[in-house]
Design brief:
Order of helices and strands: HEHHEHHHHHHHHHHHHHHHHH
Radius of gyration: 28 Å
Number of helices: 20
Helix content: over 70%
Strand order of the largest sheet: 1-2
Distance between the termini: 41 Å
Number of strands: 2
Length: about 500
């Protein structure tokens, strides 16, 4: 196990605790001996405790540089390298490389000879949950690393076989689904597709062996959701629609079979919301509205029965998606009410778990859509407050989790909304910097992935071009501002 650094730890965690946990789990304790390590009294005491209380744990000290071990727990223990006539740091580069090669051979032999502790299914599940906590704290890259280690562990267990193989395969599929989700957040859509497809294939195989197992069938409709999500990212609405309809019908069947089935109830809500989103993209607003309202009703009913935070989040998403739709249909007051309800749902989540950055992101998104409704109702000052809140929150989240490209896109949207508000008020001195920030944030979010957020970039280019043309015609605008607007418009029209 590699000891975690401060950069990888969630807020409030301590390296000393991580070290102690790592030593407890280790079968082999490799100690790289240096005078600085020997001088670190707390760490040295921790290593001594691990060496003395480890039972069959192998202790392998490696002398990187000459270290005084008199009257320590390592006094008299054979060290690597075996030939101590030359200190590693005094040898030539070639001699050092040869010495380290010999050390590596010794360590490999020790690893082969040492019985390994059997990883349990419960331990893998705990590690998977830890990855979820890391993600909620904005550590997307570290969470993904944790999940990949969990995947390696469960796949090793599957290779060894055992009585609980179906449960292991379910855990493998769940880890793959979580990996695919985080890969999509980072913009690696092809990798995400492979991970989700692998997860789905495992679940279908399990369903063939146990066709009426509710837990496995709930996993199946979750896979439908994620495959549809990726199809939408590719712009394939027809494929997404088919997947969502199949998943929705399965979740409905499971809920009808057992009204207390939380996963089925949540599946109906989540899949229904996504169906509304796809139907809206296809121009079928009546069907979209039907699914959105059904999802809101289902989320409220399920929240009363189960009281889960995730259901509050699902409710808020359905509310602001419906708010978007009815705003386009000219139902401004209803959009305003739905936006306020969505914000209230998200605020409750943030108050319940202040350290969960995902809830903060959802609150920022809800405030953004509420701002749209405020503006349509002629409340520009209130709209500006909502947009500023969304920009400030997402800006802080991007600073914490730069790997999350979706949060960066949300920040770009908020800055563009502020720019549009200032532009409509002919306050070009505010509009230009807002659009400039929106553009550069979105460019960074799409870095190396030109297909990502293409619709958002096309819309932003049009807004920047419109702003540039009006500023160019304005006689009261300064030459410096004209030049900045012209440079931004020129950059926005470049391909990529």
């Amino acid at each position: 196990m590699v000891l975690t650094s401060n950069d990888d730890l969630p807020p409030g965690a301590r390296v000393s605790v991580q070290r102690e946990e790592a030593i407890k789990l280790a079968d082999i304790l490799l100690i790289l001996l240096t005078p600085s390590l020997r001088a670190d009294a707390p760490y040295w005491a921790l290593l001594e405790k691990g060496a003395r209380t480890g039972g069959k744990r192998r202790v392998v000290p490696i002398e990187v540089s000459s270290t005084d071990l008199d009257e320590t727990f390592l006094q008299g223990v054979q060290l690597l390298p075996r030939d101590r006539t030359r200190s590693l740091h005094l040898q030539t580069k070639r001699q050092r490389e040869e010495e380290w090669y010999q050390i590596a051979l010794h360590v490999r032999q020790i690893v082969k000879e040492t019985p390994r502790s059997r990883t349990t299914l419960e331990a893998v599940a705990r590690d998977r949950e830890k990855a979820g906590e890391l993600r909620y704290r904005g550590r997307t890259r570290t969470a993904l690393k944790q999940l990949r280690r969990s995947l390696q562990s469960i796949e090793e267990m599957i290779q060894e076989g055992g009585k609980n193989l179906p449960a292991m395969r379910r855990e493998q599929a769940l880890i793959l689904q979580r990996i695919g989700h985080l890969e999509s957040i980072q913009g690696h859509l092809e990798d995400a597709q492979r991970s989700i497809e692998r997860s789905f294939a495992i679940r279908r195989h399990l369903a063939e062996e146990a066709p009426e197992d509710a837990a496995i069938l709930n996993d199946i409709h979750a896979s439908h959701y994620w495959l549809a999500y990726l199809a939408q990212k590719r712009g394939d609405s027809a494929c997404a629609l088919d997947l969502l309809l199949d998943g929705f019908k399965l979740a409905q069947r499971l809920q009808g079979r057992d009204p207390e089935d939380y996963l089925a109830a949540r599946g109906v809500v989540v899949l229904g919301t996504e169906l509304g989103t796809v139907y809206r993209e296809l121009g079928e607003n009546e069907r979209a509205e039907q699914y959105f309202r059904g999802a809101i009703h289902g989320a409220r009913r399920a929240a009363l029965a189960h009281g889960e935070d995730q259901l509050q989040r699902d409710l808020s998403v359905a509310q602001f998606r419906l708010a978007e739709l009815v705003l386009d249909l000219g139902k401004n007051e209803e959009a305003l009410r739905l936006g306020q309800e969505s914000v209230e749902s998200c605020r409750k989540l943030v108050e319940t778990q202040p350290s969960n950055l995902q809830w903060r992101r959802h609150l920022a998104a809800a405030r953004l859509y509420l701002g749209d409704a405020q503006q349509r109702c002629g409340r520009s000052d209130l709209a500006r407050g909502d947009y500023e809140f969304a920009a400030g929150t997402t800006g802080a989240l991007v600073a914490v989790d730069r790997a999350n490209r979706h949060t960066a896109r949300d920040l770009s949207r908020a800055e563009a909304r502020l720019g549009a508000l200032a532009f409509d008020a002919r306050d070009y001195g505010v509009a230009v910097p807002c659009y400039e920030r929106a553009y550069h944030v979105l460019v960074r979010a799409r870095s190396g992935m030109p297909a990502l957020f293409r619709k958002e970039m096309d819309a932003l280019r049009q807004e920047i071009d419109r702003m540039h043309k009006r500023i160019a015609r304005s006689r009261s605008t300064s030459e410096d501002l004209r030049r900045v607007a012209a440079d931004l418009a020129r950059a926005a029209q470049e391909p990529g």
